[in-house]
Amino acid sequence: MRATVIHAPHDIRVEEVPDPVIQQPTDAVVRVLRACICGSDLWAYRGTAARVPGQRIGHEFLGIVEEAGSEVNGFAVGDLVVAPFVWSDGTCEYCADGLHTSCPQGGFWGSVGSDGGQGEAVRVPFADGTLVGLPADAASDDRLLTGLLALSDVLGTGHHAALGAGVRPGSTVAVVGDGAVGLCGVLAARRLGAERIIALGRHQARTDIAKTFGATDVVAVRGEEAIAAVRELTGGQGAHSVIEAVGTEQSMRTAVAITRDGGAVGYVGVPHGSGTGLDLSDMFDRNIALRGGVAPVRAYIPELLPDILNGSVDPSPVFDRVVGLDGVPEGYRAMDERTALKVIVK
Questions:
Q1: What distance in Å separates the CA atoms of residue 18 and residue 115, rounded to the nearest whole number?
Q2: Buried-state track 207-229, b at ≥16 Cβ within 10 A, e below 16
Q3: Which of 200, 214, 257, 276 has a CA between 20 and 30 Å from the CA of residue 233?
C-alpha cells in the first residue's frame, strides 16, 4: 500500500510500504477513507520533534473495517469506524477511568513499528477498545464524514481543554490559539454553555470561523497587548476559564495572565519552546488551577458523536483544504506556511 513517511525535517514522502496484516487476534485492519494533518505533526516536519528516517506519520483517520481478528467482537468487515489518535485496550484501570492515553498497552499511530493514519490502511491493535462505530450512511455524506473525522483528535482535544478550564453555563471563556484545536475549544465552550467567549488570534479567516463557532469577541494582538485587551473586555478581572491551545512559553504566560482569580487554565497545546511560562507564585496567590494534557479522546467520542450526527455541533469548517494521498507533502507545506488551517486527506 501507499503511506506517508518522514525522512528528515521538511522531507515528507508518499511511498510503498508493506500492507497491514492481522498480527494479534484483537487486531483489525481499517481501510482509510479520510485522514488529516495535525498541527502537532508539524513539530516533526520542522525538526522540533525527533523521528526515525522512514517512520510513518499521521494519527487522525476514519475508514472501513477490511479484516477483523478472531477475538474482535464489536466490529465486522464493512463497518465504518473512527479511530482516536491513541490506541488502547479498553480493559485496564486507566481506560476504565477514562484516561485511555495512559493505557499501558496503548500507543500512538505512527510510532516506530506501527502504521500511521496518513496511508491507505492501518492495522489497529485492540480494535474493540480503540475504534468507535459510525452510522454506515455517513460514508456517503461528505460534509458529515469530514465533521466525524474531527472526533479522532481536534474536537475531543478542544473538549478536554474546556473541561480542564472548568467551562460552565454562563461563564466567560478565553481561548488562546486560533488553530484547529483552539477553534474546537471555542466550539466546546459554546456547547458547555459559556455566555462569553473571547478568541485570541491574528488570522481573520480563522477568527471568522471562531465567530461562527460561538466566539463573542476577538482579540487580534499578542503578548502584553492581548492581556490588556482581555482585561479591558472583562472589567479588569479576566476570564473564568482559559483554554491554552498553542504550547509555547508566551501562550502559557498569556493564558495565566488573562485568567480571573479563582479560575482555571485548560492546556492542550503540545509543549514546545524554552520554558513553561508558569509563575507558580502568581498562580498560588491568585488561586488559579491548571488542568489538561494529552486528551483521552476515546473517552469523549461517545458523548460528542450524537451532537455531530444531529447537527448541533459541526467542526467541519476547521478543514479548509483537501488533498489526495499524493498531495500530502504539499499539505504539510501549506500548513507550515499557514496558508492552510487543517488539511484533510481523501
A1: 10
A2: bebbeebbbbbbbeeeeeebbeb
A3: 276
CB 88 within 8 A of CB 129: yes
Helix runs in 131-289, H state only: 142-149, 154-164, 180-191, 204-213, 223-233, 249-257, 280-286
Q: What is the spatial order of strands in the sheet that 259-267 belongs to?
A: 217-219, 196-200, 172-176, 239-244, 259-267, 289-292
Beta 321-323 vs 343-345: how paired, if at all? parallel
* HSE-up of residue 57 (Cα within 13 Å, Cβ side): 34
Specify the length of the chain in residues: 346
| pLDDT tens digits, 80-106 | 999 999 999 999 999 999 999 999 999
The overall pTM is greater than 0.70: yes
Please state, as a whole number, how many other Cβ atoms lie within 10 Å of the Cβ of residue 266. 30
In whole angstroms, what separates CA 8 from the centre of its chain?
24
Closest CA to 199 of 189, 273, 191: 189
Q: In this structure, what are the phi and psi dihedrals at residue 227, rounded to the nearest 5 degrees?
A: -60, -45
Residue whose C-alpha cell reads 502559557 in the numeric block: 252
Question: How many helices and strands, by DSSP H and E, does the chain display?
Answer: 12, 18
Pairing of strands 172-176, 132-133: unpaired
